Every structure is written in structure tokens, then in C-alpha cells.
Amino acid sequence: MEIRIVKYKSEDYKKAIVLRNKILREPLGIKMTEEFLAQDEQDVHFGIFEGDKILVSLTYRIISETTIKMRQVATDDHLQGQGLGKKLVLFSEKYMKEKGYSHIILNARNSAIYFYNKLSYTTFGEEFEEVGLPHMQMEKYI
């Protein structure tokens, strides 16, 4: 397995889009639109690959000189619970810290809060609905 930075519109990026769609959008009946994907151009994308196959992906949106927003974290169904998501989050945090970022925020589905708590993220604010599911905002200083 190899962790890679995924360049926007590359073959790896296209594979990440398929995974994100399969795991995060299709189960909710939400389509990936060109407008939605165009927002990815300025983001930083990561993936864990086994050969040419993507196993896990995540994206960061730059919010300010110090703050980034983790989004679109997706692990292939049959690999969930094996520590790959954790591995990619930790790798990406280290990379982004080296780039000068110190604060990560994210919107976690309630079903993912425990995962992020184990990685030292804390909740803040009130529960809200996004894509039809309850979410909480979370953060971590790195």
C-alpha cells in the first residue's frame, strides 16, 4: 500500500471521485455534479492505493493561513475498521502541519464522531443537518 498526494483531474483523482461517490453520495441518493467537483481544484487530496486501486481518500479545503477543513473522507466498504482511514488522516495531518497549518476543522456525520474522537478531534457547536444526516463540527490543533 502507498499513500499519495492526488493531483486534481489526474487518473488517481478520477478514482478518488468514484470512491467518494460510492461511499458518501450514492447511499444518500445524491449525485456528484460538475459544480461540486469544480470546488476540488484548489483543495489538497490524499489517497491510499494498492497498485492502481484506491482504498481510502480524503480532501482538505484551505480556509485561512492556519486553518484547513477536512472533507470527503471515504474508505472502501470492505476495508472499513482496518485502520486505513486512521493511517491516512495521520499522514495527511503531518503533511499539512509541515505546510504550516495548525488547525483542522470538519463536519462529521454522527456515525463518524467516535472515529474522529479517537484521533483527538473534539466537537463544538450544535448538531446540524447536512446531506440529510445529523452532523457535528469537530476540530483539532496540530
Keywords:
142 residues, Aminopeptidase, 29% helix, alpha+beta
- How big a fraction of the residues is strand? 35-45%
Number of strands: 7
Estimated structural class? alpha+beta
Q: What Rg do the Cα atoms give?
A: 14 Å
The first-to-last residue Cα distance is 25 Å
Helix amount, in percent?
25-40%
Largest sheet: 7 strands, mixed
Count of separate structural domains: 1
At the third CATH level, what is the topology name? Aminopeptidase
Number of helices: 4
Give the low-pLDDT segments: none
What's the name of the CATH homologous superfamily?
Gcn5-related N-acetyltransferase (GNAT)
**Within the largest sheet, what's the order of strands?**
1-2-3-4-5-7-6
String of helices and strands: EHHEEEHEHEE
Question: What would you say this structure looks like, in words?
Answer:
The protein is 29% helix and 39% strand. It has a single domain (2-141), classed as Gcn5-related N-acetyltransferase (GNAT) (Aminopeptidase, 3-Layer(aba) Sandwich). It has helices at residues 11-25, 34-38, 84-98, 113-118; strands spanning 2-6, 44-50, 53-62, 67-75, 103-109, 122-130, 133-141. The mean pLDDT is 91. A 7-stranded mixed β-sheet has the order 1-2-3-4-5-7-6, sandwiched between helices. A hairpin with a 4-residue loop joins strand 3 and strand 4 (67-75). The relative contact order is 0.15. The chain is α+β, with helices and mostly antiparallel strands and 142 residues long. The chain is built from 4 helices and 7 strands. The radius of gyration is 14 Å and the shape is globular.
